[in-house]
Amino acid sequence: MNSTALQSLLERLFPLNRSLTGDGNRETLRILQEAIPDLKVTEVPSGTPAFDWIVPKEWRVKCAYVETLEGERVIDFNSSNLHLVGYSKNFSGVISKDELLSHLHSIPELPNCIPYVTSYYDDYWGFCVTQQEIAKLDEEFYRVVVDTDHFDGSLSYGEIYLEGESTQEIVFSTYICHPSMANNELSGPILAAALAKNLKERHTRKFSYRFLFLPETIGAIYYLSRNLNLMKERTLAIYVLTCLGDNRSWSMINSQSGQTISDKLAEFALRDSGKKFVQYPFTERGSDERQFGSPLVNLPVATIMRSKFGTFPEYHTSMDNLDFVNGENLAESLTLLDYLVEIHEGNEVYVNVVSAEPWLAKRGLARKNKENRFQESNEKLLMDFLAYADGNNSLVDIAQILKVSFREVSTVAKQLLQLELIKSKN
User: Fold this and answer.
1) CA atoms of 377 and 384, how far apart (whole Å)
2) Fewer beta carbons under 10 A from the terminal one: N or C of the chain?
3) Which of 172, 214, 223 is nearest to 194 (CA)?
4) 64-111: per-residue pLDDT in tens?
């Protein structure tokens, strides 16, 4: 998918009111199915146990507003779905300005933006507004209407499985539970769908790939509660995709140990792509790496981001919008993710099949000239590669040792395979 297609998808998905449950999530998944029809949607009934949790009731918003007693609306869910605190309960009545203020949320230091606030598991209603809107409230009383339903419905999540030659899986997980936030929400699912589409079009896949589109936290917990044993058996690496739509920086969160294949290859892909990036330890987690990396789960997870969630001023506000994220930024992030897949697919371990150094001259590659210097840098790279092709070092290991790119060592490996000087360890 090019930047134009990514931009179009972003604009279609942005207005939808996503939450832990609801029609906004279903419509999001339906639109993503247009891009990748392999996306399977599962509905999990409210009340279903999931480890220490249960799947919550479904939440539906009919209308929500605050108006003067003369009928002038001063806050309206229809103008921004961020205006209503997520999972707000029903309320209707005339209340004083002071009581209304106790139910309003704003960010004084960002007076022009609406914050994003949720109340998933509390019996509460509230509105989110700009500090400027609060300053304009000058009536003694206001009429408040919050017309919502909490009912036994279901939680929706999406899954794509692309079978490869191996049953070992590389998993990309993202979330679909934030209303109208472009970076913190939509960059992840859009890029996951685009990456799945690219993988679907590959002629061969060494590994199998799984893409998860989950409501954050409860979605991942539910999925693990039903699939943990299979994931422990098959998962080679998990990557959580989030906050990949801005153009300010790059970052990643390591696993608890910092030593998994996910840590290693995510770091290598960023570094080999020439990205300046920040590595955060697992103590800085905040998305579904919390679930995949928890002690009794302990799957090899790393989180890939541009600006890390919680570190940019637009985070969880109305400023995380279509001015902040665009198709060009998403296309650049997709290029990195495609490269990460390329590294996974090609990261073979090779073993030298010739004792001592091979005689390159008889294969048309003169070893040295009369001055005893390597004639071409490629010759030296060939010999250096062979020195480390010991059946223990992968291509990524050799690239790091020799301080060259993955594509350079991949090219050398193909050349040496043709010369029958190495073979795959497998």
Assistant:
1) 10
2) C
3) 172
4) 999 999 999 999 999 999 999 999 999 999 999 999 999 999 999 999
Do residues 223 and 212 touch, judged by C-beta distance below 8 A?
yes
Residue 187 shares a structural domain with residue 315: yes
Same domain, residue pair 98 and 229: no
pLDDT computed for residue 130 by the predictor: 98
Residues 169 and 297 in one domain: yes
The parent domain of residue 65 ranges over 58-150
State residue 170's pLDDT score: 98
pLDDT in tens, 321-348: 999 999 999 999 999 999 999 999 999 9
CB neighbourhood size of 48 (10 A): 15
Residue that is written with structure tokens 């350079």 in the block: 408
The one-letter amino acid code at 271 reads: R
Residue listed under structure tokens 């936290």: 217
Q: What is the CATH number of the domain that holds 363?
A: 1.10.10.10
Q: What is the pLDDT of residue 364?
A: 73
Q: What span, in angstroms and rounded, lies between the C-alpha atoms of 419 and 256?
A: 42
Residue 234 amino acid letter? R
Cα 188 to Cα 194, 195, 315, 365: the distances in Å are 10, 10, 14, 48
Residue that has been written with the tokens 């939450």 in this structure:
19
Q: Are 41 and 117 part of one and the same domain?
A: no
CA pair distance 341, 334, nearest whole angstrom? 11
- The number of domains in the chain is 3
- CA dist 188 and 172 (Å) reads 10
Confidence of residue 423 (pLDDT cuts 50, 70, 90): very high
User: What are 118's strand-pairing partners?
Assistant: 86
CB 19 within 8 A of CB 176: no
How far is it, in rounded angstroms, from Cα 367 to Cα 380?
9
- Buried b / exposed e along 94-109 (16+ C-beta atoms within 10 A): ebeeeebeebbebbee
Q: Which of 253, 266, 244, 265 is nearest to 191 (CA)?
A: 244
Element (H, E) at 50: strand 49-50
- Could you list the beta-strand ranges (E) of 219-276: 235-241, 250-253
Per-residue pLDDT tens over the stretch 36-75: 999 999 999 999 999 999 999 999 999 999 999 999 999 9
Same structural domain for residues 291 and 383?
Answer: no
